[in-house]
């Protein structure tokens, strides 16, 4: 029973499933019916399903047949109408065909025109696209053309800027074109070309400043000289209560305006404001002699290319080489002042250029580099000056050299270079200058002493008298009262020597100018040099004259008189030095003149020479004595040789009257003593023999004759 119920339930369930599948087949799209049929064949009741499917198909066929039977008359009517329409449709077809043929014939030209229009529109689009592309490419080509023009005109820094714009702004927009790829490949070559050309310009610049260093230095030193002259004018002629224009900074001789290619546009004013000398010729600046733009351009180009350090090292290396060449003095520099001047001009020109580069570029050179070069230049310059100045024997050349060195130092000091070592070296040259002066004045004194007549200066008029007194400080009331003609007690070499001593002092003073020395130092220098002149040069010249073999007693007497007056004039020389140095002689460190000692020594030497010559002359006369010690005849007059000797002594003693009393007395006493000693020696020699009465009487007469000489 239960099996029957279960079978019946399964049958109902299968029938329901088959019904569902049939409905699904009826309502589902044919393309999606596969899964449904598969579910039928997966089961075991596909036979029963086929039966149900057949039953369902027959049901649908009956429904279709019923529906067709119901609509058959309408179908027949439709066919009838369709047959009628067929004829009309054929007519319409013929009309359409005919109309189409006519339309094709009539529209053939229009089609051709339309084809032409189509081609024109296509060309127009192509042209428009080409124009657009060309508009993109044209700025690139223009920039490239501009780049070539700039390189052709050697405007390398703007060319580099153009190249940067071309590479980063314009070329990326048209990078897919072949010519752009060629340009991109060319850019490194163009950079190298710009770099090489700018380096070539730099080399030309370095050569240019090497050639123009002399002129630049000359210009700078001229301007320093003008400034110094202006300062001297202001010091000598102070303007009280008047408004002065402020002096412009004399720091540089440049007035350079660097354009947009420079990292630092700077104008250096170096025009001197000389109020009283409006007609002075304007001194050109260095920019008038050298074009500095190549170095600025090259610096900027290398900076943009990232090779600034390479450029700086190259520039400094080349300038160091040029510095060594500039600092090498010519072998004959010591022969003329122009040799020294050219040497200094080149050095000044070199450092003026470097200073200008220092202040118009940002880091191309720095202060440490400049100081290093200056230390090297200073040591080499001082060594060269020491060597070459030692060959100078002309004091005028040494003085001119000193003035040139001072101007050289002042010029460089304006630009901030320390020059103390140069002034220290000038103190060394000062000693050499003093030596050359002493040699020169040695010749001057020698000429004066050789050309002197050693006779008192005759005066025939008041004019001549005043002229001599104006040359030499001499005052004698008794001589002034005497009528003309009259004579000064000294000879011509006294005023000449006195004036030459003053000239020597002036020469020493000239060297001390502009050395930044104090008055005390100048006074000390002049006094020491004057002492050397007096104690060494003049003393040696006087000693040489006194020791000459052919000098006479008259000349020796005149030398004593002359040195006496020169000794008295030493106080006037002291006053003269005091007046020109403004240093009082009472100052603690003031050096005293040794003139009195010099002239005293010369006078004592002349006195000794007088004593010696006088004694020699007496000996010569006594050698003429010819006594016959064996004769018995008695004489009644003095011997002839003794008469001549007494006449000589009288004339000589008359000359001694011009000497100071003590000197004349000493000379006479010395002569008398020597004469007495010589006569006694003569007598002692005769006693060895057997003397006769006549010989003794003759000798006694000669001695008595000597007693009548006016000693």
From TrEMBL:
Domain of life: Eukaryota
Coiled coil ranges: 82-109
GO cellular component: exocyst; plasma membrane
Residue segments, region Disordered: 253-280
Exocyst complex subunit EXOC6/Sec15 C-terminal domain segment(s): 421-708
Domain Exocyst complex component EXOC6/Sec15 N-terminal, residue spans: 52-221
Keywords of this entry: Coiled coil, Exocytosis, Transport
Entries under InterPro entries matching the protein: EXOC6/Sec15, EXOC6/Sec15_C, EXOC6/Sec15_C_dom1, EXOC6_Sec15_N, EXOC6PINT-1/Sec15/Tip20_C_dom2
GO BP, one annotated term: intracellular protein transport
Biological role: Component of the exocyst complex involved in the docking of exocytic vesicles with fusion sites on the plasma membrane.
PANTHER family: EXOCYST COMPLEX COMPONENT 6B, SEC15
Family of this protein: Belongs to the SEC15 family.
Protein name: Exocyst complex component
